[in-house]
Amino acid sequence: RLTRLLELLRCDPQKARSGPGLSASSFALSPNTRFAQEGGLDLSIYALNESATLVCRTFGQPQSLFESKSSPEEFQNVTFEGRTFGFGLGALGNQLDSSPTESSTVETARPRYGEFLAVAGAVAQSAHKSRGLPDYLLAAGDFVPSANVLYGVKCEGDFPLLIRFSPTEVGTQFRLSAIVSSALKQTNSRLAGFVILADCAGLVGAQLRQSPARVVQSRGDRFALPGVRDWLSFSAEQIHRHNLVLITGIAALGPVEEASPLHALLRSMDSDGELSGHFHAAVFPYRPLKKRVLPLEPSVKELFESGSIEDVLHLLRDDRPITGLGESELFSGACWIGPIADVIAEEVPA
User: Fold this and answer.
1) Which residues pair with 45 in a beta bridge?
2) Which residues 6+ apart lie within 8 Å of 41 measured at CB?
3) Cα–Cα distance for residue pair 336/183, rounded to 1 Å
């Protein structure tokens, strides 16, 4: 003030952000960084490797879980290296021999199938027993974690973009579908894979109470009342508020073609049917995230090395009238997103 320099240094932030050739809602700080605003979200978009794409591989048949006569025993052993992520239903561990001479090994594995997710060399699976803690495997040295997958997805490749998102108004929370939709629009992608690390405002999800490979004498649909109570645990309210949540999944703008291997895996994420997806989440105690560019693999490794994982669940959209819980919501965090260039259906080896 004394030197009259203050007024020269002051500027209107909106005018500064809307410099030559840039709109008020989007501007660039450097060739590898740009900023945008959409629907109350502030987005910081960092280019990591703009030419990178993902290859997606699918395993198994998820619709078989809804068939009362189905007792899935065919699985595929899938390894998850550092440059991969995935999700599905399976059991942690190495390849199991399903030959008659090893039937006892298969019988031991049957009750262990549950929801799992894999990110950057870490694989976590929902607890085997009620009120238990999830199991996990973490890559170390020559060891690469794997899972015996009944059905699921594995995506491999590098993420071209990292999007840091936060509410324009502090304390505002956003639906998972809104964050996913905004990320797809910012990257001009119709089909993409996601890894999200965020401050959780509440999750809506479900877990299987027992393995679908378990032989059960029952009639009718496993997911029809009253038998569904024996199979499914559903959150009666939004859970894990203000925890740190690690989410993996795939999303697409619009419906997926029936011929696509992803058709049976993706479900509607909004009332208009304009967004479909499939996401799993792992829950950890809250810890602040580093600012700006956040490295994925070291961040994930740090979380799992803490040994404090609390839950793994399949995320749902509950759109029931009046009593519906809606969907999972987040406050702020980081979203790694990559366009999926190819989808391959892997057959069970003969």
Assistant:
1) 34, 163
2) 165, 166, 167, 168, 174, 178, 179, 182
3) 9
CB 299 within 8 A of CB 197: yes
The two tokens of residue 10 are 């002051």
DSSP sequence for 313-326: EEE-EE--TTT--E
pLDDT in tens, 59-72: 988 765 655 444 44
Q: Is the pLDDT of residue 51 over 90?
A: no
Segment 301-345, tens digit of pLDDT: 999 998 899 999 999 998 888 888 889 999 999 999 999 999 999
Read off the amino acid at residue 80: F
By CB atoms closer than 10 A (0-12, 13-18, 19+), residue 241 is middle
**pLDDT given for residue 6 in this prediction:** 80
Rounded Cα distance, 175 and 300, in Å? 23
d(CA 95, CA 147): 8
What is the number of other CB atoms lying within 10 angstroms of the CB of residue 212? 21
Say which DSSP state 303 is in: H
